[in-house]
Structures are given as C-alpha cells and as structure tokens.
Amino acid sequence: QTIYLKDYKVPAFVVDHVDLRFELFEDGARVHSLLNVRRNPESDSTEKNLELDGDSLTLESIQLDGRTLDEGDYDNRGEKLIVPAVPDQFELAVVTWLEPQNNTRLEGLYKSSGMFCTQCEAQGFRCITYFPDRPDVMARFRTRVEADKAAYPVLLSNGNDVEKGDLENGRHYVTWEDPFPKPSYLFALVAGDLVEKRDSFRTMSGRDIDLRMYIEPRNAEKCDHALDSLKRAMRWDEEVYGREYDLDIFMIVAVDDFNMGAMENKGLNIFNSSCVLASQETATDMAFQRIESIVAHEYFHNWSGNRVTCRDWFQLSLKEGFTVFRDSQFSSDMGSPTVKRIEDAAMLRTAQFAEDAGPMAHPVRPESYMEITNFYTLTIYEKGCEVVGMIRTLLGDEMFRKGSDLYFERHDGQAVTTDDFVRAMEDASGRDLTQFRLWYEQAGTPELTIRDDFDQSSGVYRLSISQTIPDTPGQTNKKPQHIPFALGLLGAGGEPLPLTLTADEQDAPKERVLELTEAEQSFEFHGLDERPVPSLLRHFSAPVRVDYPWTREQLTFLMSNDVDGFNRWDAGQRLAIDVIRSLIGQGDSAPVDPGLIAAYRGLLADDSLDQALVAKMLQLPTEAYLIELAEKPEVQAIHQARERVLSTLANELRDDLMACYHRNTLSGVYEVTPESVARRSLRNTALAWLLHVNDDEARSLALAQYADADNMTDRMGALRALVGSDFEEDREATLDDFYQRFQKDPQVVEQWFSVQAASGRTGSLPQIQQLMQHPAFDWKNPNKIRSVIGAFAGQNLPAFHAEDGSGYRFLSEQVCRLDDSNPQIAARLVSPLTRWRKFAPVHGDQMKAALEKVSQKSGLSRDVYEVVHKSLAGK
Ligand code: ARG
Ligand code: ZN
C-alpha cells in the first residue's frame, strides 16, 4: 500500500502532553501512557474517531477520561487503534506490553548488549505505545523510567531529570521532563549499566551546558574525540548560524546494535558505537573524521530538525539535506575544504548518481512511498545537501545566512515543508527560486553537454551548454532546471583569464557562476588572444554530469594548472578514467599512456603542493565509479584494466613511491590534523601500490609499519597493503595477529571483517562464508552484517559479479534470511541487485533471478517488498 504526498491532511487531533511510565523487566516492558488529546483547531475535519498508530503491541488496557473501555468500545485491528466518537478534549490512558529482548528489528524499544535503548525515527514510537505517530503532532513529554537498580543504574530520557528515587524490590526510577514540544520520532529512552563521562560547554549567552556521554565500561577511554567534536560543533553553530543550545543537558549514548549511524533525539543523541567511539589505537583517521562529522550532524539537528521539524516524511530532506549541508560546512572549516569537497562529490557521483539512475530513483522531495525507512537515501541526504548548497551559491553567503535566520525564526516550534525553507530563502534575499524548486520535484541527474569554439579574428570564445534530465520511474519529459555553473578559463601558461561577457566590460572576474535555466544556452567571452582551456563546474557547483570532449593534453594541463583544487583532482580522475577505459579488453601487455605516468610522477615529486590534495589525486577512480560510468559494464574487464594501470604505475614509479613513503614518515606524537592525516594517507597509498607489485623491500616496510604503529591508521594501512599483496604467509599471519590483538573490541573486529571481505584475495565467496562462521560474526548486529556481506557485495565487485552468478545467489539468500529478523537492514543489503538492468544479460539475468527469488519468499517484509518489486517492475 502506497502513501502519497498529495493525500496529506492536517491531523484531526493533536496531543498537548504525553505522560509515560516505563516498567522495564527482563521478560518485557510495560508502558503506561497518558495523552492529553484535543481536536485540532486547524483541521476542518469532522472526523469523530481518534486514530492511533500501533505496531507489534499487546494492548493491556485503555481508559478514556478515567472510564475503562471494553473490547467492543474500540477497534484494534491491523496497525491502527480506533476509538470511536471521542469528545473534543479528553485524556486517554493506554497500557501496552512489549518484549524489547526479542526485538531484532531494532525499531522502537530494544536491547543492545544488555541495555535498553530506543530508535523511533521514523515510525518506531508506534512499537512502544499507541500514538498519532507522525511528525506534525508535537507534544511535551514527561517520562518516568523504572528498572532494577543494580542491573540498570543509569536511566535516561529526553530533557531534564526532575525526580528520582528508590522503589521496592531493588528497583529505582528517574523522571525526565522535556520542555520543548516534539514529534514522537524524537523520543528516546536508555537504561543500562553505563559509565558516564562529563564535560561542559559555555554558550554564547553564558549558559553552562552539562555534556554527558554514556558508554559501556570497556569503552571509557574512547570518548574524548566525540566530546571534543561536540564542543567544536556547538561553538561553530553559534558562530556560523547564530544557533545556541537550548537545554541544560546534552547527552550522547553509544550502542553496539544500531541500524543506522546515529539519531538526534532531543537532548539524548544515540549513536552506533562505530560512529562515536574512537581512540588512537583503534580508530583510523577516516573514522576520526567521520565521528566528528556525525557528532556535529546530530547536534546540528537540534535546530535543523528538532526546533524546526518536518510536516510529514515527504519533507525528510528538509532536515536531512540541510543538516548534511551544515555538517559538511563544519567539516570543511575544521579540515581541508578542497579535500572535503572531493570526498563529497566522489561519493555523490559514485553512489547517488547510481541511485538516481536506478529503479528506486526518487526526487529530493518524494511523491510517494510504501516504507519510509527505504527513503533514508543518498538522494534525500546527499543530493538534498547539494540542493541547499546551490541555494547558497545563488544567494551568496550573506543572503543565505539571512535566509536561514528567517527560516529558524519564522518556523521555530513548527513542522514545515521544503517549500517553507525555500520561501524563507526567497523572502530574505528577494530572489525568485520558482524554477529552482524543480530540484526538489524532479528525480534524475541532469546531464550537461558542453561544446565550445573560439573565433581567432574576434577573440570571442563561445560555450554552448545544453541540459537534459533522463526519465526516471514515473517521470518523463522533464523541465530544465536552474543550475549554478561555476566556470574559469585558463591561458596557455596556466594563468586564470578574465571572463569578459561583453566587449566593453572592464576588469571582469576570473571566475563566474553562470546560471543555466534553459534547455540550451550559450555564453560568449570576449577579448581573448587564444583558445583558453575551460575549467568547468568548479567546486562541483551542481550535482550534474558533464560531457565535454576533453583531450588528454587538456586534462593533464588542468591537473597541474587549475587554481581550483577540486577541478585539478577532477581532471586527474578524468584522465585516469580515459586511460583505464582505453585498456579494457586489451590484455595484460597493452601499453599505459606515458602521459598518465608522467602526471603521477609529477604529483609524487611535488612537495610544495597541498599534500592532502596530492593524497586524493593519487587515488585511482574506484571500480564502483568506473562501473557507474559504463553503459553495460564488464566488471572483470574493468577490474583488470584498472589493475593494469595500478601495477604499471607502481612499477614505473617505484623509486618515487619509496621516496614519497619515506618523506611522509612522521615522527612525534600522533595528531589528527589535515597535514598529518594527508601524510599518513599518502604514505599508506604509496605502500599499498608497492605491495601491489610484490616489492620485497616494501614488504619489509609494511611488516615493520604494522608492528611498530602507534595508531590504527598506520596499522590498518599496513594490514590493508599486505592483504592486497601476494605475500600469502605475511597476509595470513598479520590478519591473525590483528585479530588476537583486538578481538575484545567489536569496532576493530568490524574493520578486520571488512578489510577481508572487500579484498579479492581474502574475500572469495567461500572465504566470506567462513567469515560468517567466525565466532565474532553476529546475525543480530547490523555492523557485522555490513562489514562482511555489505563489504563483499558493495566493494569486492569482481567476486560479487562472478560469472556463475554465485555472488548474486549468495546475496539473495542472506537477504531472505535477514528479512524476518531485521527488514530495514535486509532492504538495504539487497540494493546491489536492483541495478540488474544496467548489466549485460550474462549478469543482468542472473541478478534479476536472484531478485525474483527474494520476491518469492513468504511473509516478505514491506521494506524488502518495496525495493524488490520496484526493481523488477517496468520495462
Ligand atoms: N535522523 C537520523 C540521522 O540522519 C537517521 C535516522 C534513520 N532512521 C531510520 N529509521 N532510517 O541523523
Ligand atoms: Zn540526519
């Protein structure tokens, strides 16, 4: 059954206050809820019945204004509780019984390593009690948690703790009150035997906020980074957006079993352990950076999401797109802006473009869904972020800030739409964003075709740009969108040229943001002596594909001359892609363009360049991206061509790589600064390349680096390099050692699983099956599933796409197995199969068959049903 945006109606009833009492036991939990309900003055509905959502609940009792209702007085079928003919204002008391200890879906109230915790977004609250579980119903919550004092000394919920005390039978309670009205999806509860780490933050208005982090005792030493990140995020949001924290306490809890990364519950953020816990010995630089950005993301939601929330789930990108935008700005300010932009763009082009071209393609503001958890997508998050970024580019920094101030002020305490967001931006800036709104409405990645010519006699350079947007499920004949297109022109010596739009313009700027609004447009630039080299779509100023007939000479030129770091990187990627593509199917002795080798040699030698950028530029385009770009990708052939380039570069540049390795060996204390992160990254890239060709000296370096490392980045770098080599004995011995060293730490064991599952040498299907037999593997833990099965299907592409279809069959079996216990994770895991139409029939038919197998499973969840059926539907 499908839900449509066009059917939205304001709720007939609102809830002003919710009083909850949780009795937590080992064999279940009893939830007493008392709702103050009132007819919604903003609704013209004459609905007489109160409709509440409920899922997997046992209803124990229900009272209306103190009168107990009998079974005949209400209707409790399916996922609704309907109380007929209610008064205009009343109190409803409901008691439900649930079994958190048996909740494997990890939605609602469940247990993770012995503690109680919750995940309510999007629709988990209805698994706790009956409620109008929709974000436009905002209520004030008071929550009393009761549990055994010895087993659950820490009892948490949203807001401030207002009362606590002991009860009979060794039990105790704490009562929490949240003064801010909130939707039910922001409710949270935690009960466990947890250690508390405290810190504090003084806000810009001088209020002292208690920062508290709750972890299992074994993780006590892994909190500093998250707390430091939190304080940086709090300061940054004050400085950049003028947003101050609003409660007296801010809490973070780490749980091991969590479907997603983290959750922004009001005043009580709950995190997947892998997205919050870090120490030098156990977390890589990448993990440190990821944690900083996720902690910030969840914190920023306090304004973009909690104070101003979503009217309905079609508006999800209102909070997610904007919050991702805010966290990327933050990361960019904390580290290297160019590198952050490269990482974001690379992810978007690899994975979001693929989603936008597949059967689940949907607009940033979807029009319909069957299961909302399937719409926590790269399109909602990352493309949504790009859309906000384009608004900022069009308005400029100052107007954008005026717009966000107006948005927060105008809608504080409300549940609103993406359109309200855009209107605030329009009203503050005076700009008309009517056409721009199509970014929210039309799915699919716009494709720009760019051609140019130069007229020597007049000195005019002309760029012609046409845009088309491919058809996506349910959408054809799309309208042109409003695209900010940043452009520069380079002279023969590499110098930036003025972009003179009319013959008499003086002192024209050297970079411009052109605004594309039509299907075809052209732009003329005057006063040029010779044909310039264009630097197109600088900073990746819009999430679009660009087709331009670059020559390898132009790309090499841009790689070393463009003032825009992003486009330097992009030119390098395009050059490498062009070279790799030309080698596909050419066998193992086909020559690799010496131009590419020379370009990489230049990069390796140049110590004056931003080393963080060099580290990024040295990474070859991933197999996933090469596959995304190909029409009917031959996965094995793409893999071989890429390997051929890799080993040629490693052989030809051996001495340069060695020099780079040694030059970037750091001494002194470990620190996570952009500079040292870049050096470790460069050094580990160099090492991996050298081991790729089984260089014996490099082998010794890797073994020494592994043994001596004082941090996980270097230890993992060495392990990864060895896993990618043919030194089988070293590989096995090091993997064993690694496990012995870290077996007590689940976050590290996950890394150990994924480094093996993602590698062609250690991640063959039989090896994957063996990993799944390993005692540390756990079907109930999403991180373990992702680190083995997810890494295999998403990163070990030649193995997953084995000609005999074994990878596809394997995945479909695992999806079926997971569907009963955790449908959300099952629906995510199935995703690689959904792109079957992209592949030639040898692969595509087998992928399709694997999907059909899933679709035939009995009792298929709504989550998996939606993904599988949409993928099989259509032409
Ligand atoms: N709002 C969370 C975040 O992005 C994600 C919650 C995802 N929940 C889900 N059921 N898919 O920070
Ligand atoms: Zn979010």
From TrEMBL:
Keyword Metal-binding (UniProt): yes
Span of domain Peptidase M1 alanyl aminopeptidase C-terminal: 553-873
Enzyme Commission number: 3.4.11.2
Occurrences of domain Peptidase M1 membrane alanine aminopeptidase (ranges): 226-436
Keyword entries, A-Z: Aminopeptidase, Hydrolase, Metal-binding, Metalloprotease, Protease, Zinc
Keyword Metal-binding: yes
Catalysed reaction, written as an equation: Release of an N-terminal amino acid, Xaa-|-Yaa- from a peptide, amide or arylamide. Xaa is preferably Ala, but may be most amino acids including Pro (slow action). When a terminal hydrophobic residue is followed by a prolyl residue, the two may be released as an intact Xaa-Pro dipeptide
Pfam families per the UniProt record, alphabetical: DUF3458, DUF3458_C, Peptidase_M1, Peptidase_M1_N
Single biological process term from Gene Ontology: proteolysis
Gene3D superfamilies found in the cross-reference section: 2.60.40.1840, 3.30.2010.30, Neutral Protease Domain 2, Peptidase M1, alanyl aminopeptidase, C-terminal domain, tricorn interacting facor f3 domain
Requisite cofactors: Zn(2+)
GO molecular function list: alanyl aminopeptidase activity; metallopeptidase activity; zinc ion binding
Residue span(s) of domain Aminopeptidase N-like N-terminal: 32-186
Domain Peptidase M1 alanyl aminopeptidase Ig-like fold, first and last residues per copy: 444-548
Family: Belongs to the peptidase M1 family.
Record NCBIfam families: pepN_proteo
Function: Aminopeptidase N is involved in the degradation of intracellular peptides generated by protein breakdown during normal growth as well as in response to nutrient starvation.
Name the UniProt record assigns to this protein: Aminopeptidase N
Species this protein is from: Marinobacter confluentis
